[in-house]
Here is the input.
Amino acid sequence: MKKALFLLSAVLLIAVMAIPVLAEFPLEDFTIPDTGVHFAFNGDAKDEFGNVTGELVGDPTFVEGRDGTANGAVYLDDDTQYIFIGKYVDAESYTAIFWCKVEDNNEHVFLCSSMLGSIRIIHDDGVHVGSTINGVVDNISDYEAPRDEWVMLAFVYADENMDIYANGEYATSLSGALPLPFTLIGNEAAEQKGWQKYPFLTLDDAWFYGRAFSADEVKAMYTETGGTAAASSGGDINDGAVEVRGEYRFYEEQPEIKGECLVDVNSDMDEISGYRGEIGTDLFNLSSGGNGYCVKRDTCVWYDFEAPADGTYLFMIDYIARTGAERGVDWALDDPDGTNRHFIDLWETDVNGYVVSTFETTKGPHSFYVYAPTDMDDSTLKSCDTYWVYVYYIPDGLAAALPVVETPTAPEGYPASGESGSIMIGKVIGNETGWDGTEASGAASAFDGKAATFFDPLGVGDGFCGMEYDEPYILEKVAILSRSGWLDRFAGATIEGSNDGEEWEELWCSDDVAPSETEYNIVTEFENNYGYKMYRYVNYTNHGDVAEVEFYGKPGTAERPAKEEEPAPAEEPKAEEPTAQEVVEQAADAVGEAVGEVAENVSEAAQDAAEAVSEAASDAAKKAGCGSFIGGGLIVLVTVLGSAWIAKRH
Here is the structure.
């Protein structure tokens, strides 16, 4: 027995010695500080807090970041490229967050990895996000990250469970014990497991924390770092965009782009470089002088241009996408077959709207294609009317190319209440001048931080003071200081919200007078608090003087509860319908009654006639001397004849 065990051990030793030895990376123990670790990838791989410096391996390139910052993101497109961190983190819980964009790829793509496991934006199935615990399990989730589009992925690990969030919203969960993979970022390496691939991955920011975030913290991270909820006015770039959806920025008015204009082409057939589709069948000129076109199925137009250098380029499409109609457009670069098209779900507008985005390309000749959208029904005729297409070279990035809209700033000393929370600073709206016709009593005086100044409306319910914001806000608190000497005018004070300045909803109303000349009235409970771009103070009961108003809140909206449908009124019980036999019997009874009445009337008439004849006969008989005999005979005769006539009528 001992001899057999010895021989088996020898065989196993030889087998192990025959396995190729991988040179593992040297790792240092590391504890993530309370601040966390943040790689912004703005031209380097340094932690913004100075705790760690990553090593760029394989010469990855830096490209424009998601906010338009030049060299604000790192792009990995080779199997030798990764970012070496080289740390071992022994944490029972952690949070790893990535702003990332992956191209359409059927290979696995790593976000971070170690000898113990990895987190992947694309797992081995070539589709879904997942993780691997080396030697134990490949966890493939049911969530698929978007392709060619920025997304914030958060991985929150605790108690051998990993919750995955996409753009601040919970997506799915994976189970299993996985220590934080903090050796490499962006790829694998031959020195580790040798599973590296061509990732075609762009990373803008990556954060690592030594604790598990709550769902609210993940949502806040998303909004605070440029997510759509915080970026409906343009994210980190305040350029007047009415909405931002991923990489696409939408405008109601044409933005003035700073860059070298390479394409400025009307979609008239005389100006475009080329088209595919039969004019009048699949490709339609509009009636307005031939400007613009409407496409369906696989038709397209394209615009040729000469790129002056490698770098970032901007395109802008002037369009109409009618409210309520199917709308959208596809675009592509150097793609005549339409195999790599990008769909834009256009912002609704019945007048001209503008969509802006960017692409990277190389120096030389190129063609910009506009297609009928692949995500639309083939029968859709008016999916998008495109009027003008622009292409710009923007060497300094998107942020430098877009216009700058001044952000409203609060006057010095405002807010003055001393309340905690996020003050909402916007554009003052309401009456520019007040009751005395001067600006000193206008709406701005309620937002200047001075207790001695005040807004004085024109009359009861006539005038208001408020603020307008570039995006909807949820109210968390309002601080109100009444005008000194007029505390009774606080009764009826009302806070309202609106998104269009026309329809206003009441969130709060005061039933009482103000309790103090110097203390702010703090309101924290509201109705209809669904998120609005405008808030105002108004009074429909008293002359609504007010010294100061402060709005506190956070960007976002809340879902309105579904309206309960009123129950339909109960139907009154219906009388039972008679049977056919009953109908016949009722009809017969009615006829019998009618005939009886006729007979009775006839009989009475006959009796009356008989009596009249009898009287006449009696008189005649008296004169002739034989009245009784003749009169009686006539009565009998008339009665018999009358009865016979009645019988005949029956």
In short: Residues 605-650 form one domain. The longest helix spans residues 580-624. The mean pLDDT is 79.
